[in-house]
Design a protein that fits this description.
CATH architecture: 3 Solenoid
Strand order of the largest sheet: 1-2-5-8-11-14-17-20-23-25-26
Number of strands: 26
CATH superfamily: Single-stranded right-handed beta-helix, Pectin lyase-like
Largest sheet: 11 strands, parallel
Radius of gyration: 21 Å
Number of helices: 5
Distance between the termini: 45 Å
Strand content: 25-35%
Number of domains: 1
Length: about 350
């Protein structure tokens, strides 16, 4: 009996040690109860020296932080770590067409950038809960959500920076949850959980999703890549679980937001809710000539390719070998290896 009690105590201590996240000694601490240096994440980000010569860490204690957060272009080499993925939440509820749309929370430089893309100051690109414009940013163990509901485009995250990592995060939304918005930027998602309805992973950036769960809330389209023609890789999913609500029975893997959109699924698991056609041409036969859609060695009822559209490509073994982080994340400044 005594040995069982000791063993039980040991297991409890082990569980506590695994769940308790140690705060780095040099971290900037955010806590709603005032036990840190700041009570909001944005204040902590703003406190970091512009183009910091020393990488900085921001540690965010548990809580629901109702704020829009913007990491500016001059905020680089910052890691934001949540105390607990499910209990450390950044939450906001802006959406396309909402009056004000939180523009007061964004800097003038970001608002100007968005204006160049859309004259609608209440538009999609201003709706994000988290905006990452700086390079070399890591976001870890956080939930980032847009709670606007099914009211149209409503971003959880908008990424413009290069060499950005999301690790063990939950990214929750409906339409347009994840916008990866700049040609040439490279973003890596590792062990993340992403939810959405329509086109909920979209944009022109190059991104890898490794070991993620992509959860579909309705029958619609998962991806809407707008990859430029000269960019060899768009969105690449490695070893991901593609899941869906029980009501779903016809989900498409993607459609091209722009003519040369590129998306590939390799070694992923897909349920029967994936439509046999797999892909959609966004109501343009011309897109079938240019869109770059690929699959390789996926499993599950939804991975059966017999009914796939003829213009989607099933990679050969030799072609699949080209899908490496070295190749995908090669850039003008050299190869970036996030792991």
């Amino acid at each position: 009996m005594k040995s069982k009690i000791i063993a039980s105590c040991f297991l409890c201590l082990a569980a506590l040690s695994l769940s308790a996240r140690e705060i780095p000694s040099d971290a900037i601490v955010v806590a709603q109860d005032g036990s840190g240096q700041f009570t909001t994440i944005q204040e902590a980000v703003n406190s970091v020296r512009s183009f910091t010569p020393v990488a900085r860490t921001i540690f965010v204690k548990k809580g629901i932080y109702k704020e829009k957060v913007c990491i500016e272009t001059w905020h680089t080499s910052i890691t934001i770590i949540g105390e607990d993925r499910d209990e450390t939440v950044i939450s906001w509820n802006d959406f396309n067409g909402k009056a004000d749309n939180g523009t007061a929370y964004w800097s003038a430089s970001y608002a100007d950038l968005v204006d160049k893309r859309s004259p609608n100051r209440n538009g999609t690109f201003l709706s994000g809960t988290l905006m990452v414009m700086g390079n070399d940013i890591v976001v870890e163990d956080l939930t980032i959500e847009n709670t606007a509901g099914r009211v149209g485009q409503a971003l959880a995250i908008h990424v413009e920076g290069d060499r950005v990592i999301f690790r063990n995060c939950r990214l929750l939304g409906n339409q347009d949850t994840v916008y990866l918005g700049r040609e040439g930027s490279r973003i890596y998602f590792k062990d993340c959980y992403i939810t959405g309805t329509t086109d909920f992973i979209f944009g022109p950036s190059t991104a890898v999703f490794s070991g993620c769960t992509i959860h579909c809330l309705t029958n619609s389209y998962i991806t809407a890549a707008s990859t430029p023609e000269k960019v060899p890789f768009g969105f690449v999913f490695f070893d991901c679980d593609i899941t869906a609500d029980a009501s779903c029975n016809r989900v498409l893997l993607g459609r091209p937001w722009r003519a040369c959109g590129a998306t590939a699924f390799l070694h992923c698991r897909m349920g029967s809710f994936i439509a046999p056609a797999g892909w959609n041409n966004w109501s343009s036969v011309e897109n079938e000539k240019t869109a770059r859609y690929a699959e390789y060695a996926n499993t599950g009822e939804g991975a059966v390719t017999d009914g796939r559209v003829a213009w989607a490509h099933q990679l050969s073994d030799a072609e699949a070998k080209a899908y490496t982080l070295e190749n995908i994340f090669a850039g003008s400044g050299g190869v970036w290896l996030p792991e």
